[in-house]
Amino acid sequence: MIESEARDRLRALEADGDPVAEERAWESVRRAYVSGLERSGRTRHPLRTWRTRRTWRTRRMTVAAAAGLALLILVALTVVRPPREAVGRWLREAIGLSATPHPRPLLAGLPGGGQLLINSATGPWIVNRQGHRRYLGRYAAAAWSPHSLYVVAWRQNELAALSPLGRRQWARVAPATISVARWSRDGYRIAYLSGRALWVVAGDGSGDHELRARVDPVPPAWQPGASAHRIAFVDGAGAIGLVEADTGVALARVRAAEPIRALAWSPDGGLLVAASAHRLALYDARGHLLSLRRLPAGQTVAAVAFAPRGRRLALILRGAAGNSIGLLTASRGGFQHPAEILFSARAQINGLNWSPDDHWLLASSPSGDQWIFIRARPPVRLEAVSRIRAQFLTPPGGARARRLRGTRTTLATPGANGFPTLGGWQSPPSPQPSG
Fold first, then answer.
1. Which residues have a Cβ under 8 Å from the Cβ of 278 and sit 6 or more positions away?
2. Does the pLDDT value for residue 342 go beyond 70?
3. How many CA atoms lie within 13 A of 71 on its CB side?
């Protein structure tokens, strides 16, 4: 049995709910493994230091242990029927397949580099790759500009552009409460929802105008790579609209069978994913439907996010057994194969952000008061950080800021009970040339 086959079969082990058989299987495998190590000589001569004998004994132990472990895997997979979770858990731990992260008490660094924008109950924060935090002020939430040179922040009906140090560059007053804002990929436009209307303003604060009078509370999505400033949104009738933001000219309108929860463009702007509760729809840049995937019964989509490069799509799936984070590959031919599940938990998972190098995903677990970093490339690895709420509770000066009231959107809001949410994970600004 090759290693990859063993890993795939081990991951497929599921619990059956028989505690007596579980403990009996666990004890049998444990005794067999320990006995194999003793026969290999590992426990008889633990301190032998002669180089030639130590080398020979190490090789013999390695071969014996590997052969014994392969035999145990075969026994566990073929003899124990139905397979028990205890056997699977023991074997996963023995060969390093445990999927349980051991949380650190403090955010001491970002495994994927870059910097995070965090929206907390007291306001937005920036976290650099070493884990140092900078408070931006008493705003309801914020989002990055494309090159991390600025942040767009909002509170009630005020929209403002800030430097990464929190210095205000400009501010505007909107007609109604602002719920979400998104910077275009070139940095020259900002779209925001004010009440039920979609507005657009230039990156320098000029040219503020209403683009559509009535839309659904779904964050709009700017199309990357387009020659004009094109933006996708969900209109007041629940249909997906694609318009040119500067002229207001409608380019496409697609009716949806279910209420849309999220929109996401591929990095090259060639594909648009529209996620509803029970299905994923894939469109080309002109709004033509390429593929429609229905989720299995009992599963719903909570969030979607394209990787910064390529066409890997990460998604959060909810079901009766808990929450999962999976990966799909999208192309003009549709979604390729079933979703690859990277992580599952009974606790609720909210928010999903890619690292700038597209190697890591960051999700949050409000009920566990944790962030979970997931390496999305082989080998898959998990890192967790606990006590997140307390780390973003008190702004500088010691006074706890009062949470500002405002309309919230489905997929871009602070979590339950004021748990910090992810406003973006990007690279720091590139050094500007002198002169």
1. 258, 294, 295, 299, 300, 301
2. yes
3. 12
Structure tokens given for 290: 């390429």
- Residue 252 has φ and ψ, to the nearest 5°, of -160, 155
Q: Which two tokens stand for residue 224?
A: 């990357």
Radius of gyration of the chain (CA): 26
β-pair partners for 160: 153, 171
How do strand 189-194 and strand 197-202 relate by DSSP bridges? antiparallel
Rounded to whole angstroms, the Cα distance separating 223 from 93 reads 44
For residue 265, the surrounding DSSP H or E stretch is strand 260-265
pTM: 0.72
In the numeric block, which tokens belong to residue 279? 């299905």
Question: Which residues are paired to 374 by β-bridges?
Answer: 361, 382
Q: Would you say how long the chain is, in residues?
A: 435
Q: What is the pLDDT of residues 67-86, one digit of tens each?
A: 555 554 444 444 444 444 44
As given in the structure block, the two tokens for residue 147 are 């090159």
What percent of the chain has a predicted confidence (pLDDT) above 90?
53
β-pairing verdict for 250-254 and 240-244: antiparallel
- Is residue 379's pLDDT more than 80? yes
Strands 197-202 and 178-183: unpaired
Residue of 259 and 41 predicted with greater confidence:
259
100 CB-contact burial (10 Å; exposed 0-12 / middle 13-18 / buried 19+): exposed
pLDDT at position 181 is 97
Q: Which amino acid is at 336?
A: Q
**CA pair distance 314, 325, nearest whole angstrom:** 7
| Six-digit token string for 49 | 């230091």
Contacts of 383 (CB under 8 A, 6+ apart): 101, 104, 111, 372, 373
CB distance 421 to 415 below 8 Å: yes
DSSP string of 120-168, one letter each residue: ETTEEEEE-TT--EEE--S-SEEEE-TTSS-EEEEETTEEEEE-TTS-E
Q: How far apart are CA 93 and CA 103, in angstroms?
A: 17
pLDDT one-digit tens code per residue, 113-156? 899 999 999 999 999 888 888 999 999 999 999 999 999 999 99
Distance of CA 179 to the CA centre of its chain: 21
- State the average pLDDT over residues 279-295: 95
Q: Are 279 and 293 in contact (CB under 8 A)?
A: yes
Residue 89 confidence (pLDDT) above 60? no
